[in-house]
Write a structure and sequence with these properties.
Strand content: under 5%
Largest sheet: none
Structural class: mainly alpha
Distance between the termini: 91 Å
Radius of gyration: 29 Å
Order of helices and strands: HHHHHHH
């Protein structure tokens, strides 16, 4: 029995990739530690942009919630309440603001999706040894443009909110 244990302990592991050349050609070489560290370092900037977009979306959603709460409050005012009924004149402005914030949220989410794809493409292309620079550059540009459009909509909404302040509290 001890002779059998010695044989098992001294046995070499079987390298299936050498036994079958078709298996070797089907499986790509795994990326080296250097390649992975390079991809991770290249993914740092998109990851920071993704974090910034997430924080920006949270701000936009907070503003949208305030607009919705104000609209609900104004819609609950009775038409017989002559003193507060004039506050309902603010509803069209609130609807415009909600539309702009909604559009800003949409573009921020589109930017977040494209940045997420940039990160995934970086890792997949490193694993498959595919050139990805142009595709990643295009996706990054798309993401930044979507973020710019979102910021423009946000700026327009803030301008409306500040130019026509709620004088009626």
């Amino acid at each position: 029995m001890s002779g059998r244990r010695a044989q098992v302990a001294n046995a070499r592991p079987i390298d299936f990739s050498r036994a079958n050349p078709k298996v070797e050609s089907m499986l790509p070489d795994t990326p080296s530690v250097g390649q992975l560290s390079q991809v991770i370092s290249q993914a740092a900037a998109p990851a920071f942009l993704l974090g910034a977009l997430a924080a920006f979306i949270a701000v936009l959603i907070s503003r949208l919630n305030r607009i919705i709460d104000r609209s609900i409050y104004l819609n609950q005012i009775s038409d017989q309440d002559q003193e507060r009924c004039r506050l309902k004149a603010d509803l069209p402005r609130l609807a415009r603001r909600a539309t702009m914030i909604n559009r800003a949220i949409f573009w921020s989410i589109m930017g977040s999706i494209s940045i997420s794809i940039v990160i995934v493409v970086g890792f997949v292309s490193a694993f498959l040894h595919i050139q990805h620079e142009r595709g990643v550059a295009i996706l990054f540009i798309v993401s930044v443009v979507a973020f710019i459009v979102s910021l423009v909509d946000f700026a327009r909404e803030v301008r409306i909110a500040l130019s026509e302040l709620d004088h009626y509290g």
